[in-house]
Specification:
15 strands, Aspartate Aminotransferase, domain 2, alpha/beta, 418 residues, binds pyridoxal-5'-phosphate, Acetylornithine aminotransferase, Aspartate Aminotransferase, domain 1, PyrdxlP-dep_Trfase
């Protein structure tokens, strides 16, 4: 998007492993729901680092907590503990509504939380795992066995055995797949990476029922849906069930890497015993302080309610456009996908970028929006107002599907903190 950008991307290509492809932008800094690239162009960030930047960029509560903790001590290892780590574990149990005896394992990422969940499931004495088609649970080799997309899995096979993938949302298929050999059923309450697909709360209740009948664990991957993203602390709370365990990460640290496994109830909390699992960084004071600040701010700023209101507002506004290229809006709270009549999501994301909006082409015919939970209705409206022209530029018969003539707002607007 400019000279400095191109220069840096050339250096990127020569030095950074190409697993992410070539990113379109080199970002420089952010403030609230905006980010700026190295050429000074401003963008409304409607992806929030993939549902991570729950408080946006530079939120004073998070900046203060991280700065203070960095000065007092970043890391102590798990040979010791800290008050802030204990407080975070207590707070997570509290917001999860976990019964007495439940416990938390803290780690550094989503995939690590899933690894911990897989090991937890092995402690049932069984090895079978049931996951869903379309599932995304991470890239480490254990989590990858649960992830469904063949392009992610096949180059690394053989992966851990015993995993069955069933069609997502199909209650009969789930019933048929769970047996006395099933250690755990692992499901996302809404599949984020698959394009923001909701199976509905009845499916989660069936999953709870079926796992209970067969003595299997129900492990819900709330890495993307948790921490207020869908309008409640965790998406499973909308189904009125109690899972055996949930995984969390993404939004928890507001951008500071952190993950966690929450095991519900005394039995599940004690499946992994001393020496059976561990991590060097997990739950360190910096990550714990950041996470506590995020959770406190979501509460004090009423962001659960706001996620519901803002998400519904966005969905209604996009639907009201009645644009022929838009077929629907999926998801809940501020985890949404706008579905398209043609496979033009990459073009739409590029056009949006050209107009100063960051969105994610999560599928060929769907763009994902997972903005900071602090996004305002006005900011969402500014995107909805721009959307018809962006869609028109992407119509399959339009002459140029990759660029708009729009230029992003310059950096020297009053909102730029620099
Ligand atoms: C992002 C994600 C993961 C993996 O998290 P990482 O931090 O990238 O390892 C796992 N499960 C779900 C549902 C996710 O959205």
């Amino acid at each position: 998007m400019g000279e400095r950008n191109d220069e840096l991307l050339e250096r990127y290509q020569r030095s950074v492993m190409g697993v992410f492809g070539l990113p379109p932008l080199v970002l420089d800094h952010g403030s609230g729901c905006h980010v700026w690239d190295v050429d000074g162009n401003r963008y409304l960030d409607l992806v929030g680092g993939i549902a991570v930047n729950a408080l946006g960029h530079g939120h004073p509560a998070l900046v203060t907590a991280v700065s203070k903790q960095a000065a007092e001590g970043i890391h102590i290892s798990n040979l010791f503990t800290s008050e802030v780590q204990i407080a975070l574990a207590e707070r997570l149990l509290d917001i999860a509504g976990a019964p007495e005896g439940s416990a938390v394992f803290l780690c550094n990422s989503g995939a690590e939380a899933v690894e911990a969940a897989i090991k937890l499931s092995r402690r049932t004495g069984r090895t079978g795992l049931v996951a869903a088609e379309g599932a995304f649970h991470g890239r480490t080799t254990g989590a990858l066995a649960l992830t469904h997309k063949p392009a992610y899995r096949q180059p690394f096979e053989p992966l851990i055995p015993g995993v069955t993938h069933v069609p997502y949302g199909d209650e009969a298929a789930l019933r048929a797949a769970v047996t006395e050999e099933t250690a755990a059923v692992v499901l996302e309450p809404i599949q984020g990476e698959a394009g923001v697909l909701s199976p509905g709360t009845a499916y989660l209740r069936t999953a709870r029922e079926v796992t209970q009948e067969h003595g299997a664990l129900l492990i819900l991957d709330e890495i993307q849906t948790g921490i207020g993203r869908t309008g409640t602390w965790f998406a499973f709370q909308q189904a009125g069930i109690v899972p055996d365990a949930i995984t969390v990460a993404k939004g928890l640290g507001g951008g500071v890497p952190v993950g966690g496994l929450i095991a519900f109830g005394d039995h599940n909390a004690h499946l992994l015993t001393a020496g059976q699992h561990g991590t060097t960084f997990g739950g360190n004071p910096l990550a714990a302080a950041a996470s506590l600040a995020v959770l406190e701010t979501i509460e004090s700023e009423g962001l659960l309610e706001h996620a519901r209101v803002a998400g519904d507002h966005l969905a209604d506004a996009v639907t009201a456009l009645r644009h022929p290229l838009v077929t629907g809006v999926r998801g809940a709270g501020l985890l949404r996908a706008i579905t398209l009549a043609h496979d033009v999501a990459p073009q739409l994301a590029a056009a949006a970028r050209g107009a100063g909006f960051i969105v994610n082409p999560v599928a060929p015919a769907a763009i994902r929006l997972a903005p900071p939970l602090v996004v305002t209705l006005e900011q969402l409206d500014s995107f909805v107002d721009a959307l018809p022209a962006l869609l028109d530029a992407c119509a399959p018969d339009s002459a140029d599907t990759t660029h708009t003539t729009h230029t992003p707002a310059p950096a020297d607007t009053p909102e730029d903190p620099r």
